[in-house]
Amino acid sequence: MRPVRPLAAALAERTVVLDGGLSNQLAAQGCDLSDALWSARLLVDEPEQITAAHTAYVRAGARVLITSSYQATFEGFARRGAGPGQAARLLARSVDSARTAGETVGEEVWVAASVGPYGAMLADGSEYRGRYGLTVRELTRFHRPRIEALAAAGPDVLALETVPDTDEAEALLAAVRPTGVPVWLSYTVVGGRTRAGQPLADAFSLARGDEQVIAVGVNCCAPGDAERAVEVAAEVTGKPVVAYPNSGEGWDAASGLFHGRATFDASLVRAWRAAGARLVGGCCRVGPGAIAQVAAAVASP
User: Fold this and answer.
1) According to the model, what pLDDT value does residue 164 have?
2) 66 DSSP β-pair partners
3) What does the DSSP assignment read for 185-249?
4) Stated pTM of the model
5) pLDDT (mean) for 47-76
6) Which residues contact 119 (CB under 8 A, 6 or more apart)?
7) Of 4, 6, 5, 3, which Cα lies nearest the Cα of 182?
8) What is the pLDDT of residues 187-202, one digit of tens each?
9) Would strands 241-244 and 277-280 be described as parallel, antiparallel, or unpaired?
10) Which parts of the chain fold into alpha helices (H)?
């Protein structure tokens, strides 16, 4: 059902379960994601598949659903022949699809509109490197129209996610400020640094004192990198922390394939919560089965 209170109020009371990877669930449903728009292509062609994927996570126990707008941009839709008006409607559809799925249960379900990094639009893996050669002002200009369109669609929060460096974080925070919509800021990291190599303490400090930011943390990283990052985020900002790592498999942008073995384990949630995490789930290759385990771990004393 629609939430009756802000997500920030819920995080002040308890740990809330996020969903898992949208693309892997769509693939499990038989969807073809071999497109530069990735899962956002289905907003055009098969929006009912996106709703079905969200619903699978709600049934698994997720109470925050991240929209399919990670790789959805005005530029990307323009390459498919969609003008600005249609692109804005497709972005709104991503919020509506998640909202529809959330209304299938009798508990509060919050919708987080995904704002992916500039590199996601390039579809070449550069979101795992950052440092695109653009200024903060240029990145702000890129992000603002999509953020405005998503904010107008009425999500409960904007998820500034898979952010690879502090320049992009600074740009995103500037772009969301006029909307007044609550946000979380989530970096993709390796070891104790952002993907661009910046110390996490410096990265998280950008959100310290920003009341619009209701949580900070990490996503799209190895599960083993999450705990220390959660600790640093909590220490630096004093805010609730969000943690939703990948399965642990590696991503090869050149081949478009994952490799290695999965290391995601719901038992890690206990350590994340002890370190300050209040919003926990999974990212790439973490499916409804794993989220059901996360929900059980959160519910256990």
Assistant:
1) 98
2) 112
3) EEE-EETTEETTS-BHHHHHHTTTT-TTEEEEEEESS-GGGHHHHHHHHHHHH-S-EEEE---S-
4) 0.96
5) 96
6) 125, 126, 127, 128, 129, 130, 132, 164
7) 6
8) 999 999 999 999 999 9
9) parallel
10) 7-13, 22-28, 41-45, 47-60, 74-79, 84-102, 118-122, 136-152, 166-176, 200-205, 226-237, 269-275, 288-299
